[in-house]
Every structure is written in structure tokens, then in C-alpha cells.
Amino acid sequence: MSFLRGRQTQKIRLPISTRKGPLEVPLPTEKDWPKDDEEDHVLVDPDEELDSLPQPYRMINKLVDLLFDQAWEIIEEKNVLREAESSQIQLTVYPPLGEIQLNKMPNCMAVSQDYVFIGEAKGFSIYNLYNANRIYAWEKLKVDVTSIWATDLGNEILIAPLDEMGIIRLFYFYKDGLYLVKVINEGDDTSKQTTCVKMEISQGGNFAAFLLQGAGDIWLDVYKLPKETWLKEVENPQLTSNPKKKVRQLQLNTLGPTSADHLEMDINVCFKGDIKLTLPVYTMKIKPPKPVTGTTFKSPLEVFAKIEDCYGLGSGQNHFIKDSQWERQAEIFNASYRKCLDGEWEEEPLSTATFYFLLPSCLFAMPMEVKGPPGMACVLGVHWSRSHNFFLYSLNRTLKDKADPEGVWPCAAPIVASQLSCSSSYLVLACEDGVLTLWDLAKGFPLGVAALPQGCFCQSIHFLKYFLVHKGQNMYPEGPVKSQMKCVVLCTDASLHLVEASGTQGPTSSVLVERPVKHLEKTICAVAPVPALPGMVLIFSKNGSVCLMDVAKPETICAFAPPGAFPPETPWEPVFVVSQHYPCFLLRGDYSQDTESTDDAEIQYSVFYFNFEACPFLENISKNCTIPQRDLDAMAFPQALPLEKRCERFLQNSYRKLEKNPEKEQEHWTRLRRYSLLQRENFKK
């Protein structure tokens, strides 16, 4: 881009790889412009030097050339990406089977039995999972519901909505009635108001635990739920003695839902606020472990006397390390890492807890006289953030008993993530060094330790129901499977791994999805197993895509997308729920902030219903996903058989091999007779 005076000349630019240094933008002052800046050019015509551009045009010429080079690199990169996408197999994208239209933003969702519970402004709504009709809307709050949990108890459902003020309520849903059991953390004094962080209900609904915080402190409250008493109270209700108040209450509650949303309503379900159910029994308060400080004991004998029945052994609380030893160790550490420690220290966030209700196991040292019904939780497992220990607390206690742990499982590094399987048979503890410890709680022994690849650290763990691959298709064994587990691990670098463990064999780890390097929009933000499809997981990416992956191959099978393909917010935080019993999932339709309408009342929100059986090839997988036990016995699947069956099959195979060779068979029988005679003579002696 030069103007030539006189004859026309040419300049040839050297390749970028042969230039002596990176191009620099000249300073905006004319005094600092270099007088001779022709080192990057080869002159074809000797007279060209007289025809070079003067400043500032030479600087403009360089800037234009630089922009052209950068634009050319972007064009080439997009062409390579376009060619790569065209060479890939195009996934089939399936639309939703149904849609629930709302005039309020759905903040959270939960599925239990045949119902969908959606938390929204001023309360939550109950929908039918099959026809998307709203059954009831409980709208008695002034704030939004931000989280909601629903636990299946068989014929009943426990619902726990958490509002944005941190107040959590416990509801009991039975047949056509919704009952408020208790507001867990609502207080009269607003200055002393506590907030709920998370909650957990045990399998079977016998216990509930709530993680609460307030006034700079955090703790865990454990309740025993009288669900048998609740069932009697709702089947034989004792209504209030004021008939006018009763009729007015029922009229308000039955007519209230019909005024919201233009959906078909089922008025059979109503909120029965006049029936008071028995309150849960407060049994235990658990606080984070105290920081380890210098000992107050004068002799080791006092330390051993403090430990009663080995309770709390391994927690590091009862030790014989003096304050002077801790101070000396801190001085050595500060002197060794002075450079790393210099600077401002951020205040550590308040500790939080992850907790699970565990079923009886030989791993837990419980008193012999303590016996509960089968399937009832007996131990609460807790680990706190930045802690190495997994604490075990017995649930067979009262509020008067001291809340000391009955057992402690120490780990080599702080525990950052954990997960309990749906059957409560397996537990995985992930430490901050990328090491996973796999426990078989039913049998009472560890399945092994698995290390993630270097640089990968666990973000979340998701259990898969154990499956086998038969004739290229994933299948569930019909009978119970023991000491066999599979789970997917999502790491902080957005890579996805499959971890498997089988009995005495060591666990194995394989990569399902690599860490994205160039295309960050494909970063995985959420993962959800699909129990109705063996070995299948839903993968949600930041660009709004939802894909179904087969972890056994591994490959992506298909994709799901709502109609309209609205661009989600960045980064995308999907709100979804996958049914544990039916082949479906629900996804909130997220709109971008750049919508034309500014009035919230005019914006229509949607929750889309996707059914896996609506996909032709997934329908066959969903309906034929179980291998009968008789077929397992006839097939070569030793990992799915108990030890007795494996030994029996081994002996039968050995006997069949001997039948093919009569000479060896006779030799083996002769050897067995000789061994039997020797054993008989030794026994006589």
C-alpha cells in the first residue's frame, strides 16, 4: 500500500518466521518515529528507497498489514473448524415432547413419583408428570423459592422448599392433601435469624438433616421424622373446632390455584393448613471440629483416659502435642515459604459440610442392643470443607447425649467432594490431590484407590447403575450385583472420566471427554446420569447444547434442544431434573437478557419435557435394558455372578474339558483316588 513516484517498483515482505522481532506500534509522537525502518523488506528495485512512504503513512501501512495478517489467521482457523465440523457425524437433534408455560421464572425443579415440583416466586407448584397439568400452587411467601427437594416415601412425598431468605419448610404430600409439618429455622427475632444452606432426608424418610448458619457459626441439625404417626393423622384427621374458619380456609385453598396460569387444573388437591401434624423430634446438633491446638494433658495416660470406647479416635482432638511444638513447626513453615506467604491474606470462607445417611454395615461399630428395621439409616456420615476426616455419628441418640463421632475415617488430603450411591451401597471420597477412595459399604471393605490424571481435580461425582455390554448394547443385570460399581467424575478443567471398580480388582479410570483447549464454548457445565438408559449420561455445555453420551463406547449418540434455540446467558447454568423411574427429563428454557420485552409480566417462561422413548432407537433400549438371571448364568459374565456361581462354573468348565480327553480324565480320577486314600490314612493316624 505505497504510492510510487516515477517508475513502478515492488517490495517483497519477508515471511513472519524470518522477521527479526515482533511488530510494534510506533508511539504517537512524531519525534520518536524511527528514521530507517526498512529492515523487514528486500528491495527488488534499488530506486525504491527514494519512493518509500513518509511518516505517518508508513505507520498506517504497517498497522493495516498487521490487521490483515490477524484477520487472515482468524479466517483460516474458522475454515479449519468448519471442515472439522463437516467431517464429523451430524447428531440427530430431538425436540421436546411437551411444554409447561409459566408466567413466573422457574428457579428450581424436583421430580418424585408422578409429580413435578417447581419452585418459583412466592411459593411452588405441583404438576402432573404425564400431562403437564398443574395440580396445585402453594403461594404464601413474599420471596422466591430458590431450591426444592422431594423425597419419595412410597405412598407419601416429603417436600422441602428453601426460599431466598434462607428459610426452609417441610411439607407432607399424601393423596389429595398437602400438609405443612414445620418451618425448620424461622425465628421470632430477625436479628438472630438463621439460614439453611442444604438438607438431606434419609432413604425411607426416617431422618432429616439441615445445615444451618448464623452469627458467624455453622452447624448441622438432625431430626427424627415420625412418618408412621403422620400417616395415621392424615387418614384420621382431627379438624379444628371452628367450622366457619374451616370452611373459609378450604374455599380459599381450592379456589386459589384456579386463578394462576391458564392451565387445566385438578382441584382435588388442596392445602390442609388446619391439620397439625406431629413435629419432628430434634435429636442432635453437630458442629465443625475444633482446630487442633496445643494439649492440656500432662501425661499420655490422661490422653488414653479421655478416649472412651475409641469414639473419635483419629480426629486429632485428643493428642499430646504441646503449644511450643506447634509454634516451632509454624516458624519453620513460615521461614521455608516466606516468599509464597507474603501479601494480603483473604479471609477464609465459613466452613460447609457434606453429609449422608448410611445404612447398617459391618464398617460401623454399633452396639449390639441397637437394632432397627431393615433399610433404616443408622449412621450419619459428615465431612467438612478443608478437613481430612470423614466423621460417623450414630443416629440412635437423644438431644441429651453428647454429639461425639463414633468413628473417623482419616484421608491423606482434605476432602473436596463425595457421593453416595442411590442404593447407599457405595461411597466415593475425592481429595484435593485428585485421589478417589472407593468404599463398598454393603460388604464392608474398600474397593480401591483411583488417581485422576495429573492436573485433574474432582468437581462432582455421579454414580451409574451397574451395567454390562451384551451384543453391543448396554444392559442391566436382573439380580443384585455385589461389589461392582461405575461412576463418572467431572473435573475442574471440564474433562469427564469414567471410574470402574470390580471386587478385588483394582479400580480403573478412563477419559470420556478431554479438556477443551480451543473451543471453550463446549466446556461441560453439568452432568446427569439417566437411570432409564443403561450407561447413558446427559452432558450440558456452556453454549446451551444438551447431548446424550454412551460411556461404554464412548461416543455422543444424539442431542436435545428446545424449539426456537434461544441463546442462553453466559455462562449457562442449566436448571433441569432427570426422573429416576421414567425415561424423561425436564429442562428450563433459558432466554437471553437481550429480549425485546422489558416487562416481566409479558415474558412467558417455559419448562420443556423430553421423553427418551420418543427417539426411535432409544425406545428399544429403554424397554429392553435388562438381562434375565438365567441368561447371565449361560453367558460369560463372571463379574456379575456371586463367588459360589463363579467356582461352580469353573469346575463345570474343567469337567467338560476332561470329557473331551478320556486319557486325561482317567489320569485325574486316579490322582483324586490316591489323594483320598492318603487323606484317609492320615486321619486314622
Roughly what percent helix? Answer: 10-25%
Determine the structural class based on helices, strands and strand pairing: alpha+beta
Strand ordering within the main sheet? 5-6-7-8-9-10-14
Name the beta content range. Answer: 25-35%
Low-confidence blocks of residues: 1-20, 239-267
Total strands: the figure is 37
Radius of gyration: 34 Å
Q: Biggest sheet, open or closed, and with what strands and sense? A: 7 strands, mixed
Mean pLDDT: 79
Instruction: Sum up the overall morphology in one term.
Output: globular
Our count of helices gives 10
Question: Gap between N and C termini, in Å?
Answer: 111 Å
How would you describe what is shown here?
With 685 residues, the protein is of the alpha+beta class. Helices cover 19% and strands 34% of the residues. It contains ten helices and 37 strands. Strands 5-6-7-8-9-10-14 form a seven-stranded mixed β-sheet. The radius of gyration is 34 Å and the shape is globular. The N terminus is likely disordered.
